Amino acid sequence: MKAAFAADLYNEELAPVAPERRNWSWLNMATVWMGMVHNIVAYEAAAGLMAIGLSAWECLEVVAVAYAILFVTMWFNARAGTRYGIPFCVLIRSAFGPKGAQIPVILRGFCAVFWFSVQAYGATQAMDAILSTLSATWASFNEYILGMPEKRWAAMAIVWALHAWISSHGVHRIRNFELIAGPLVIVVGLMATFWGLHVGHGLGPLFSVPSHLHGLAFVGAFAVGVTGMIGMWATFAVNIPDLSRFVRSQRDQVIGQAIGLPLTALVFTPMAIITTSATVLLFGRPIWNPTELLLALNQPMITVIGGATLILATLSVNVVANILPASYDLINLFPRHLDFRRASQLVLILGVFFVPWLWFDHAANIYRMLDIIGGTLGPVTGIMLADYYVIRRQALDVNALYRHEDIYDGNRGWHLPAIIALLVGAAVTSAGEFIPAFHSVGAIAWFVGVLLGFGIYVALARKVPIPSVLGM
């Protein structure tokens, strides 16, 4: 049967995972999410919510709503991966056609490599802080090379090597790493929380700050907060089949995600607020950046342990949320030449060429560009859900996904309803970046994108004959 597959659409990494190899339990899925939710960006997100006027308790409400929506979206988008054992880059061919699918795959891959680069550089700073604390000789290597001190280049090489080691033996080593890293990050986070409770003699001052928003102002800020929280994981909502294809049952994937995503986020957010409350009492201002907090405490042992924790947290989110999907996306582009090991190495190389040490000085440009690209993934999510549940009725001919000129080929490899839905959805969600009249759309861009992608795709796809595989 394999001989009938197109060489540019199939290799062993992209092939469906055999049922006997789908051995991830709910615990594996939960610990993977634990490792991803506990990251620096999520830690600092509470600061952004409080900065727009929400109280600490309202921050928790925003987190609850956002992660509940994410959980439902990922639960439904993960089902096809668990049922058929196929990754996102193969599943998306059903909606876009084998050639058209390259558009969302490239968009998702770009975001993954970029975020890998940025987050790995954050871990590089932590590694540099640890080694500078331990060695005066290391701290003295400050000669700049291509815009970065030589000690930072060495620290980056170490961090990149750690990523390479974890991803070198594929998804199963990543699973085993997350089984340890996810719970360990929680343990260290709990230690920081107990420290914050001790210093603050309770929840601390941030929990006593009242909300500054009421009426429509509160509703608007709440919507912005929910959309922002969802935006952190909107890319992963698209490629969740990359993980769920290894889970042994639908029950395991839904229980694992329920524990690892909304429940963990609801525990993690107050931990961040409590820890930061202690910094208000110690330093007279809230310090939300964990690295800045370590330096402010000026305790070598804490700097080393805390820095190691930040590196561990970065590794746990990077290997799953960025290296894994980017590797599959690259394999999909070059199936004749890449396997997972080679693709993950290529992700590391590409990450260096994104020169993250230069981007760090232009954070506004980073988020503006990623908001535009990420906004296009809202329509992709809507299209995927519409295709699988409404158009295909949860029935796919998996073999046809690996062939040209078969039932998913569309118009010479392009399924136009999906292409049109993506272009229209992306244009609307990105319009606010360029047209002031559409600026308000940005506050709910992901929701608008999902609804537009879903609605337009269903309307157009129903006018095109769709071969049925319901009898399979």
TrEMBL record:
The keyword Transmembrane applies. It is a multi-pass membrane protein. GO terms for molecular function: nucleobase transmembrane transporter activity. The chain crosses the membrane at residues 30-52, 59-78, 179-197, 217-238, 259-284, 304-331, 343-360, 372-391, 412-431, 437-460. Keywords: Membrane, Transmembrane, Transmembrane helix. It is found in: Membrane. One of its GO terms (cellular component) is plasma membrane. Belongs to the purine-cytosine permease (2.A.39) family. This is Putative allantoin permease. It comes from Gluconobacter wancherniae NBRC 103581. The gene is pucI.
